[in-house]
Amino acid sequence: MSLDADLHVSWGYVLGQELPAGASRVLELVSPDHAARFSQLVRDVIATGVSQQAEIDLTIRGTTRTYDTRLDPQPESHVTAVFFDITPSKQAELSLRETDRRKDEFLATLSHELRNPLTPLKVALDIARMTDDPAQRAKTQAVMERQVAQITNLVDELLDMSRITQGKVELTRVPLDPATVVAAAVEATRSLFTESRHQVKLDVPRGLATISGDVARLTQVVSNLLTNAVKYTPAGGHIDVAMSVDADRRVVILRIRDDGVGITLDVLPHIFEIFVQCRDTVGRSVGGLRIGLSVVKQLVELHDGKVSAHSDGPKRGSEFCVELPLIPSGR
């Protein structure tokens, strides 16, 4: 478009629509945050005769996008303005920055989580060297075993995420009753429930459905979701686990609901993204690298299923729902 010193249009097009001569609505298209800057750039081009280039936000048909704007001087104190839409590249740039930020947070968390068990492990080793008391040695051995187990879990999480993202996970699928998977996961996380005094209610009948799945990987899925519920539910809170079948859609549905801290609506869509800390923990008793939910999503999708999260907001608890396809009982 061609503009005069008062930003009236001599001629121009916006998204293929011709602007009438004399139109003064150009600034109406410019984002309020950029209007003064755009006006000054036009006047600078007229005053100096030197072209200018800047990124300007325009709102067209209700949508704000970023444009690489070139302003060139023309005779009789006019300026030609050409706008190139660079919104996709700006969004990609912001996405890369956000990914970098999350990666940095993840590395900081990894360092912290690895250091945590190393300190008591070192202390236990020092005590073991200095004592001949069998009872004391037994205590220090128990401490060392717990800390080594914690480090092993952290490394396993990293390896799982690496294998999944590289497509190197191979499932050993067999017909199975999902209730047995839930029972194994509950047993694996029972110590967490006991320590935090959570009240766990199970409504998972056996023989309700048959699915095709990898027992170990599906147990990992349910264990991660239960651990997540413990992590974000205050001591003494409630965790409900229920299973049902949707015959019309031919899926088994597992729901794990807690009355914990909940999830804000703005972060709910990102809850399964890697390196995302979408909620504040209620304590540091349960560590982890915050990649458990991402692992859950990937493993469920490898089983041709889907997982979703629901919450009414902060302090309203949350529910995670896993859906897996059924297979005929006799298959």
Structure write-up:
By secondary structure, the chain is of the alpha+beta class. The chain has three domains: 2-85, 2-Layer Sandwich (Beta-Lactamase), CATH 3.30.450; 91-165, Helix Hairpins (Orthogonal Bundle), CATH 1.10.287; 174-325, Histidine kinase-like ATPase, C-terminal domain (Heat Shock Protein 90). The protein has eight helices and 14 strands. It has helices at 26-29, 32-48, 87-130, 134-165, 178-188, 190-196, 215-231, 292-302; strands spanning 2-3, 9-11, 13-14, 17-18, 52-60, 63-74, 78-85, 174-176, 199-203, 211-213, 238-246, 251-258, 306-310, 318-325. A hairpin with a 7-residue loop joins β13 and β14 (318-325). The chain starts with a strand and ends in a 6-residue tail after the last strand.
